[in-house]
Design goal:
The protein is an alpha/beta fold. It has twelve helices and 18 strands. It binds flavin-adenine dinucleotide (FAD).
Length: 458
Amino acid sequence: MMSLESNSNEIRPHVLGDRVVVLGAGIGGCFAAAALSKYFQSVLVLDKDELPDGPLSRRGVGQGLHIHGLLRRPFDIACKLLPGFEDDLRRAGGIKLQLGEQSFFHDAGAWHPKRDLGVAVYAQSRPLLEHVLRSRVAGLANVTFQDRTRVEDYIIHDGRIVAVGLQSDKQNEVVDADLVIDSTGRAGAIVDRLARLGYSDLESVELGVQISYTSAYFTRPAVPGKLPSGYVVRSNPPKTRSGVLWPIEGDKWVISLSGRFSDFPPADDEGFREFARSLEDPIVHEAIERESRVTPFVRFNIPRIYWRRFDRMSRFPDRLIPLGDTVAGFNPVYGQGMAVASLQVEELQATLAAHAAVGRPLDGISSEVLPRIAAATEAAWSMTEPVDLVFEKTTGARPQGFAERIAFAGAVRRAIVADDELHRAWARVANLIEDPSALVEILGRSESAKMSAAADGR
Ligand SMILES: Cc1cc2nc3c(=O)[nH]c(=O)nc-3n(C[C@H](O)[C@H](O)[C@H](O)COP(=O)(O)OP(=O)(O)OC[C@H]3O[C@@H](n4cnc5c(N)ncnc54)[C@H](O)[C@@H]3O)c2cc1C
């Protein structure tokens, strides 16, 4: 059991409270604990799982053995919150991939052209990423992790959360808190906890995407003098099958196959191989034929993606902040979940910094932070929502301007083949380091250049 004692007597310049309690020690919980450590005397991170001392998968993170691509933006946020994070990740086995030169994307029937896109990411398994992140956070003097502790209830007084009710080693206990972060993830029961207390007018945006993943690790013999590469083979509607061949630490590949609407990748060798063979490029299938499987198959079903609009509830307990998958469960195909959790933490941190700068107390913090968290969620949600809704069988309301957004995404996809600048901007937008409006501008320029060239030729 991991339990690191805190050393909280150190005087902090921006202290806003004695104790913040973070529920869930996953990706969102670790980012939040790192950001909050500056503003509270002590940070207590609770998790129902036994937290391993090494890069091992665990029950509370059922998605952990599937591909977990870390976009550039959350990587940058981790490096800012935890200086030295990049060195730790590299030393632990994370593999640096230069996008466009060591990471390749097959979309709509063709590979994107090979060119340096100016963005590098790290490839590793989710258990390794979580281990490095959690170890760095546990090293902060005022942060304590307490595992095998299940959050049962919120304790609310005068409209604000004042404590959480816990169960650990079959004992019940209550822990007081000045602020509570709920990052218990997609299986966490925030909706039930709120409803039991009468907070029940929650609106949730849901899209029935019916996606299923099957994954396993395979051998990846190191080739002297050759850097590994990662490959994503994505199909476009009406086709529903995709596959990822991604290098991870320990000379392994993680291979994840996904399908939609009952066309699910089987979890047996023959079925897995045949599903991979049907992808639009043979690269994943060739790897399965060449390499040996070293882990059992794991499956994960995602019947729907959701965005819980806590920000629109008529009332919400003050000093309670939900983040990560507790707020929104994204389609994993776009690799946005961990990124959005980190962006939400940035919003929380900016709000706390503003309070600390003028010595403003925490009262009213939830009504300030929830809209900022919603805005950070919206940025990613609106980028990928139309891509899911293009499938006729996806259930859910089609947003305004849906047809135009689809047409624009198609135009970008076609234009990046010939346009280096647009391709590089696309990589920055997909990695959430630049706003999608950059694409509108570049595509506009590129199309008017084409039109004048055509006019000149006439
Ligand atoms: C198949 C699949 C593939 C994915 N691939 C990617 C990807 O490529 N890139 C990407 O960015 N994202 C990916 N994601 C999404 C990513 O896993 C999540 O977005 C991310 O982990 C969210 O972090 P979180 O902190 O909200 O939740 P989690 O990281 O899931 O952590 C939740 C934590 O809460 C704990 N917990 C739950 N209930 C309680 C309780 N009652 N009491 C105490 N502790 C509790 C759990 O044990 C767990 O540790 C994928 C998801 C799936 C399903």
